Structures are given as structure tokens and as C-alpha cells.
Amino acid sequence: MNFVDTSVIVAASQPYDPRQPACLDRLAVADARGGACAIHTLSEIFAVLTRLPLPYRLPADAALQIVKHTSKRFNVIALTPAEQMATIERFVAEGLTGAMIYDALILSCARKANATRIYTLNPRHFKQVAPDLAARIHEP
């Protein structure tokens, strides 16, 4: 199963982004093979698309349509409260702090989905958070 990070979905939705064609291709492959994303990704897509600098910022209703499309197109993976706490505890045990916790939560969802390939535009942070998944983490 192919798992996609928020960054890939956001870049795919932005015609100005030079990575758009590669991201669209990865999304098409993930979609055809039963791809997945994290529940957190739905909120993050909305947040990013509605706070981009003008003229790239999308109105809330347009961002909502992308979120809805994503939720229908992919298996959306959620963590239980116990899985979320275990992720945070593992993150702390590794000596990590800050916003990379969101990458850790996304990667826990990828683990839960048994993802064979994880696509992100931020592979360095993903590999830092989950070195055991490094061979599965790819840029589009």
C-alpha cells in the first residue's frame, strides 16, 4: 500500500508548484492501488491551503473540496488514543521535540496501514523520526 503525506497532496493541488506533476503521478498510483493517508492529513491540508500567501491561498470552500476528495479517494487511517500516546512516548524516548511530532503521528498511521511506500516532500524529517521505515520513505 502507498501512503501519502500532506505535503504531496498540497503540492499536487497547486499548479504553481514545480513538484505538482510528480505529486499528481504518485497520487494516481496510490489511488489505483488503494492508497492511504493519516486522519491528521485532512486537517493539515485545510490549514495549509487556507493560509498560503496570496495569490496561492485557497478560499475555505475550495480547500474543503480538496479535503473531501482526499477523504473519499484514500483510506484514512486514525490512531487510537493508546496508539497516539505510544507514539508521543516513543518520540520523547528518542529525544525528539517540537513539530516533528506531527510527522511521527503520520508515520504511526503509515505503520498501522502496513504501508510499503511512504511519499513525502520532507523525507529527511520522516527518516529522522522513523529510521526503521527509511527504506519505505520516498519523494515523489
Q: Considering DSSP H and I runs of 4 or more, what fraction of the residues is helical?
A: 55-70%
In terms of per-residue confidence, which ranges show pLDDT below 50 for 5 or more consecutive residues?
none
How large is the share of residues in beta strands?
5-15%
Give the integer mean of the pLDDT values: 94
Radius of gyration: 15 Å
> Structural class, from helix and strand content?
mainly alpha
| SSE series | EHHEHHEHHEHE
What global shape is seen?
globular
Widest sheet: strand ordering: 1-4-5
Number of helices: 7
Organism: Tunturiibacter gelidiferens
InterPro entries: PIN-like_dom_sf (IPR029060), PIN_dom (IPR002716)
Protein name: PIN domain-containing protein
